[in-house]
Amino acid sequence: MLLSKPEIEKMFHKVAEIWQENKDYLSEIDSRFGDGDHGVTIGKIASLIEKKLAAWEDDDIEEFLEDLGDSTMEIGGGSAGPLYGTLIGGLSGPLNGGGAIGEGLLKEMFTECQSAMEDITNAKVGDKTMMDALIPAVAAAEAAEDDCLAILEAAKEAAARGAKESEQYVSKFGRARSYKEQTIGTPDAGAVSTSLFFAGLCDGLK
Q1: End-to-end CA distance of the chain
Q2: CATH number, residue 85
Q3: Which of 23, 26, 41, 114 has its CA 20 to 30 A from that of 17?
Q4: What is a GO molecular function of this protein (predicted)?
Q5: How many domains, in total, are found in the chain?
Q6: Domain that includes residue 72, residue range
């Protein structure tokens, strides 16, 4: 299976839909030990995705992802804008203006988006950040069979597990780190929104 513009549109429409549906929940869990604005920012990014999709006229996936990433970086409201701008922009790294994405290239895109994130954060699995979902998702994608849907399903499942497992960790970044062991039992909002991102990509393709 090759992913071309129609598939990418469906995938990102679903990401936007899932993020909008869960923005209140994301803000609720973020408010326990953070600023409580994560869901608000995620909602803004979701609206931006829909706006960019509506304006997308050519078949250049690389340009679309670069533009979406750059625009997401500019969204105010905490760190979510720059973080997701980096992640989305990172997906474009292996692309070279082509109009379709195969299995190998999809894996490279996920590998590159993790690399882009690692350029701006030292967070690892266990630090209670979005990396708790992203790193397992990318590892699962890289190990999956060479089928685009199988790759996305593996990433979705691993990201969901990572977000769930973030409940048991102590926060080491951001405002939440001052709460130390009190953060155990609450999932990281960024890890949850990242798991929803991969769920949207996967469910959108289905």
Answers
A1: 12
A2: 1.25.40.340
A3: 114
A4: glycerone kinase activity
A5: 1
A6: 5-205
